[in-house]
Predict the 3D structure of the following.
Amino acid sequence: MENTVVSATNFNAWFGDNHVVKDVTINIEKNQCIAVMGPSGCGKTTFLRCINRMHELIPGATAKGSLKLYSDEIYTMNPIYVRYKIGMVFQRPNPFPNLSIYDNVIAGYKLNGLKVPKADLDNIVQKSLTSAALWNEVKDSLYKKGTFLSGGQQQRLCIARAIAMEPEVILFDEPTSALDPISTSSVEQLFHELKEKYTLIIVTHNMQQAARVSDKTAFFYVGELVEFDDTKQMFTAPSDVRTQNYITGRFN
Amino acid sequence: MTPLETEITALKKELVSMWMLVQSQMNKAKEALVTFDKDLAREVMIKEKRVNSFELKIDRDCENIFALYCPVAVDLRFLLAALKINTNLERIGDIAAGIALHVIESIENFDAKKLESTQLLRMYDESVNILIDTRMAFEKEDTALARSIFKRDDVLDEINEKAPDVIADLIRADINNLPEALYILSIIRKLERVGDQSKNIAEEIIFYVEAKILKHQESGKRLLEGEE
């Protein structure tokens, strides 16, 4: 348990009366890469958005149960602080279109009015872009707009932006579904490097990606966490027939 | 049915066809041995090429399915099992051809009494029955039937273990028995390997259906696992 970074116990989430995450209990360990998969509408993205308190931003969205970052209840913490500690990268690369690459990386500091000396910011930008495997490609064009980058580079810029806040956990919501195979491959390679420092939770519809990048996989179905196990086990001999039917494409 | 299921069903049918051919090869080799029918033995040798073609085709089909469908879970286990079953069946095909070759090479026909007293015929029937039952276990995904193969293979092992003494007695009784006795010993050794190959196939069926690995486990433990 000492190693557990995020833990949910009988956690539930709703959109109005629609019960979308049902009694989920899961322990996610430090420096692991977790893939979350399941059919559309199974609650996987909602669960992900609960972890960094983004679920509540939708009118009528509610949550109940225990969801912890280490030993702290996420739902009693300051949501802004939660989002420092639990970064998120979305499906489509979303750099701020009017900001430079440099300013995109430190956007979290700027938008929250955090005063940091310029030298430290320079250091944060270089470290974050290096960790996101983007530094060598953009070091000579830091003051160009982020939107001039390719899709894959933009997504790595968004990862650098999340890293800049020194999070414990980074959430990824289908991070490569809008990228070509080469960019996908570079982001997947990045996952292997990032999990040395961070805990990664990735929602993906791409089962081969889940198999390639994750240590453990969670399978959600109609709001329930059906199975959570080592990825190797899940993709060779899943214990639940629903998981097997889903990953082998026999779901209907 | 998904495209992958269609491919797997076709592959399964192909493996069963190969199984039937190998089974027929074993039966014909036995008939050629008992009736000393060299033409039939030659037919077995010629049809061995068809067994080899099956092996190549099934290997290629598996490779294509891996490349095109990225199978997982039960589908992945099925394909891994299919590759190994394919190899085991091809080897049984080789054994049938090897027995047929002995018939072709032998100058004199085999004495029915010697085939009986050495338990070769009993062993032959049991090894073919085991081969048939592994096919049934495969077709019906019947792991209880697959597990029963382990014990039945022990019977073949026992005959094989006793074979050197039995053959030595035959030679001691009459030195003229020597060439025939050596052929009989060689065929007994081959039939023992049919048992081993069938046992390997049974392990693959259990792996495919139950995701349990029984390889390199003692036979007692294998049976116990089946009782769980």
User: Anything to note?
Assistant: The mean pLDDT of chain B is 93. Chain B touches chain A at residues 2, 4-5, 70-77, 211 (CB under 8 Å). Residues 3-35 of chain B form the longest helix (33 residues).
